[in-house]
Each structure stands twice: as C-alpha cells, then as structure tokens.
Amino acid sequence: MTTLERNLKGLALGLAAAILWHGTVQAQTTLDPAWRVTGVDTNKPGFIWNYFSNNANTANTADRAELYLSGLATDSTGAPLPNLGDPATVGPAIGPAAPANPASAVLHFEIPGVINLSKTDGDTKGNFTPDELQPGLNSNESTDGQAAEILTYLTLPKGPITMGVNSDDGFQTASGSNPQSAFGKVVLGEFNSGRGASDTLFTFVVQEAGTYPFRTIWENGGGDSNVEWFTVQPDGQTKVLLNDTANGGIPAFRALAASAVVAPYVKTAFPAPVPRQVEGTSRSVSLALVDGTSPVDDNSVTLQVDGKATTVTKQRKGNTVTVDTGALDGLHLPGEAHTGALTFKDSTGKSYSEQWTFYNLENLILPASPVTGENFDSYPEATSDATAVPPGWVATNYTYKETEGWDLTDIKSDAFLGWVMINTNTVFGVEDEVLDNDKTQLINGQPVANWMSGNLIFAASDGRARTTTDGFLASQAQIVVSKAFNLSTVNNPVMTFSSGARISTGNWEQLTTEYSIDKGTNWFPAIYMRNSSSITLKPDGSFDAVAMFTTVNTNQIPYFPNPDPSVGPLGGKFGDMLAAPISQDLAPYIAIRNDGIAARRVEAIRLPKASKQADVRLRFTHLSACGWEWGIDNIAFYDIAGTTSSGPNITSVAISGGSITIQWTNGGTLESSPTLGGAPVWTSTGNSSGSYSEPVAASGNKFYRVKQ
After folding, report:
1. Residue 439 pairs with which residues in a beta bridge?
2. 0.85 cut: is pTM over it?
3. Which domains does the chain have, with CATH numbers?
4. Backbone phi and psi for residue 204, each to the nearest 5 degrees, phi listed first
C-alpha cells in the first residue's frame, strides 16, 4: 500500500501564494480576513530585523536566506556556519542585539522607523535617500552572503494595495495566517536572483480593513546591498515607505501584546514545500520547529518521508527544535517528487501536523564506474568546423556572425558560433567561471572530485552581439546532438554530467537537455534550465510549462531561421528550441538555474524511456542573446533502481469557488480523514477516477490520501 496525504490546513494559502509572476510585476492575491490579528502593541511601531551574515554561501536565492535565518546553514564538513554579523552595529535600531547564541543564530534588532537600509550609512541607493546603516553589519567582514528577516504587523485599509521592495539582491514578501511558517505563508511578491538596486511591485486586495502579519526576507549575494519596503499611493506614482505615517505611509507595528497566545509552527522546511525543481537542493529532510506560548514537546516529534517512518536527530536551541533525517538511503535526484508528514505536540498535549510535497532532495550515491559515457578527452581540441564536436556528434547553429575566422581565444570569432570542443586551459582564458563548480555538492558523501578536465563541449553567448547592426536581436541558437549510446543492458538509466551553466539574470536564456531512443525521430525531456526571472507558476505551485514555452517575448528571445521557409523565422518563444512536444507534462523537468556557482554542478537525471535501449542520443541546446555560457563534460550513464514509490501520486490540488479539486495518477481510491493524530479514521470517497471535487470544509482540518 502507498499513501500520499495532503493537509488542508493552510492549503488555500499555499495555492494563493503560487499564483504569482517572478520579475518586476506580481499577480494579484486577496488577503483572507481570517489572517487579521488583534492586540497589536501600538506602543511599539516599526519592524523586527533578524540578521545573519557569512560569505561561505553567496547564492542569490530565498532558500539560502531561509537556511541562514533558521541556523541550519553548514560548511562543506557539516559544521554550522557562524553568524559573522556585529551585534553592536545599531543603525536605526533602538539598541544593540544580544550576541548570537548559539553562534549560528540570528542577531535580533528592533527598528522603530522605516526599512530603508544599505551597507553604507547615508548611501543613495533605491528610491529614498539618504539610506540608513543595516543593523548587524560587520565592517571587518565581507557583506557578501547576507540575509535578514523583517517582521511587522501592518494596519491596512480596505481595497487594493500596491506594495514594493527595492533590493540588491533578492527578497520575498509574504502574509498569511502565519507568514513565519513554512506552511502558513502566502507569498505576495519576490525576486529570486541577483540584481542591482531595483523595484519589484506587487498588488494584493484587502477584503476587510485590519491589521495583518507580514514578513519580508532579504538576501545579498555579493556586491552592493540595500533594501527598501514601501507602498505606492493611489495616484500610481508616489512611493511611501511603510511606517512613514507623516507622509501617508501604512502604519507598522513590531509586536503583539504580551498577553497574545501564539501557536508553535514550522519556521523552515528543507527541501522547501514546493512542487517544482529549484536551484538549491538538500541532502536530508530537515525542519525547524519554533515554540509558541506553550513549547514543543521534543519527544513527540515524528517525521515520515514517502509514507515511511524516519529516524531523526532532534536538537533544541533556545526556542527552536531542529529535526533532521540525515542523508536518506539510496540515490535521490532533485527532479523526483516526495511527500513529508510531520506530527508533534506542545507541552499541553495539543497535537499539530503538517503534510507537504517536495522536490529537490539530492543524495548522489553512484556506482564506482558508469556503464558508458563521454568525457571528450580522446579527441584533440577543435581547430575548425570539421572538428568542432566529436565524430558521430552533429552541431548546428543559428547564430549571428561577428569576427570572421576561427580563434578559440576570441569569443566573437566563428569558433563560437555553435558548440565547440575546447580544452579547459583554453576555456579558462575565455570564460573561467565554467570551471568553478559548487563545492558544497557531494557524490558518495565526498566533494565532487571529477569536475572538468581535459576537453569539454562549450557554447557561449557572452560578449557576442546583443543586437545586429540593423537593430534586430542577434540570434544565438546553438544545438548539438550526440552520438548513439548503447544502454541495452541498462534497466534503470540515470545520466549525470558536469554542467558549467551560467544563465543571465535577464529572461532571455535557456539551456535544455532532451533524449531520443529512435535516432532522433522523437524526443523526450531530461532537464530545461531557466532563470528565476523567467518562470510562470500554476495555482498548485508547479511550473506553467505551456506558458513558459509558448509566450512570445520578441524583445528578449532571438529569432533564427526555420527549416521550412514557408513558415517564416522561428524565435520569440523559448519553445522554438525544444524537440519534445510542448505540454504541461514538461513541468517536472523545468529547473531553476541562475548566474551563480549553485548552477554549476553535476546534474543527475533519470531517463526512464531509455531503459534497455541500444540507441540513446542526447540533444543539448543553448538559446540566448548575449547572456552567458554552458560547458558540459563527463557525461555518464548508470543503472540504478529508484527508491521512490511508483504507486499513486497526487499531482494537483486546486481550490476555486469554495471547492477543492484533487487529481492523482497511478490508480488508487481517494480517502479522507479529519485528523492524523492518534488513530485516524479514513473514509473512502469511492472515487478512483483520478479526479475528485468537494466543498472546502468550513472549519478544522481535512486530510486526503490515495490508497491502492
């Protein structure tokens, strides 16, 4: 029997959070009046500022920020990263913070004014000047690798609110029943990548006026750093900082009354509870539970992964209990879906539970030797079009020509029109970043030792024309199809390769891998890499593959010739470079990769259709317009059985018009229960069709599972 369970507690909130656009404008969300709080301490205006700094990890992602803020960040040896922030740097806070205790904890400050902060006091970043100094900043340490959590309660009028964050680098703003909870927050707006000081605006609707909890997390990967939090006035032009009430700003308060009763909650969950691939991965399932008014009963905590009980390590640090499974047995790949089920009690005996679906669990346990593969080292470095790729490989391109002639030291020359086989010594002088991989990634429990050496295949757009001489967007479309690999003895094919990926922070670059088992007649998805700023999500939190591949973006995506001249040129859509049919079925294969070291890693992907196939070919494509580059080396194929269940799988949960619709695959009958604690009573819906709808319960929780 296989069971996959979904908790309705906070589910509508999570679904609402998923309806957003990454970039400068977010989609609209409605705040639930049930989120309103009472008993705000009006004698404490402003914000809580919880700060962490350590440049051991500078990834521009919300996951990295959450890891730092939860105290769960570790170095390559597994030791906790210390907070290098300075508790004596006050800035606009009311006073210094207590030293971090333990050393991996955040520094806690209270800011009674506004959020207009920079790494330099009096700076002029963003919309509002002069800036104030970030509390906790350590002048003796690098400001790379910062993270902060900004907490407040905002008193909002009824109607639409346009809010904005100006940041260098990324941020995420949430409300909800508890925006500090990994399972109770609704994301209203975010920018999940690196950038200079820039605005992201997002609009939400307040159904009923009142005071609502808010949380913004901010991170700086490197370079300058600043963050502003503001709203836009009804005139659509005037920006006002939150809590700048003298100029019409929204009132903000940093605390509830001392008498307020607070429930315990899960502050962080890794991997994050999202049904899609992101850039960051986790080697284990870990959570941080925070005490409420009544503390968590540490001994009551249990955790199931994929329906199986796990042995967890529990550690209490102050008001937080961390729970960690350690590395799970067997091979786990980021593109595989899992389910988690957490239960615990507080000191009064009250039960709590959370269930979620997640990807991005990575434990690369590989055999000593692959079945077959290609490292490109048995061939000489390319010297012309004829030797650009190995024998049996076929490279094509639709790339704007610049400097005539073949020169592997000149990125604008004909040598880089398409994919080219290049030595690591040569590529170092062209784009050395491709050789610098994510040092935190492990294979068989050890840091990656075989990254790139000898030769690799390489496609570049950096330094090449962004536009043509006549003003049109320069075409940079590079395709290579591999020779045939014989996997006729392989039952469970897993492909790995060193992927030196750099994807521009703009939304005009895409790196794809597909495979064929019939000499290229039909193609199947392996991985589609896109930047955070170019994604679109569906209501269930998965990628909207159809929109992402078919939306026309003529200002960002280059045009290139169509093999059928009667159709006209291709381009303007990311999907024009795909060989696999475009449908929502491609969503699980989309993965976020940005311009940072976290994207340069060993990718590991299952190729189920390649099982026992004698002619397996790979298709790598690089589509860009003066973005960055992609280097590939050490392609390897292994035979490794899966560890996840092939039984029923809940694929979609959506709430609309007061009803919930659940869809699932692989058979089974849907059941429901009002609780998971004690001995849950499961009631069959009688539905085994793969789709079921019913009204959302008016109160309480409801859990679903599919029973085979």
Report:
1. none
2. no
3. 32-253 (2.60.120), 265-364+658-707 (2.60.40.1220), 372-639 (2.60.120.260)
4. -140, 165
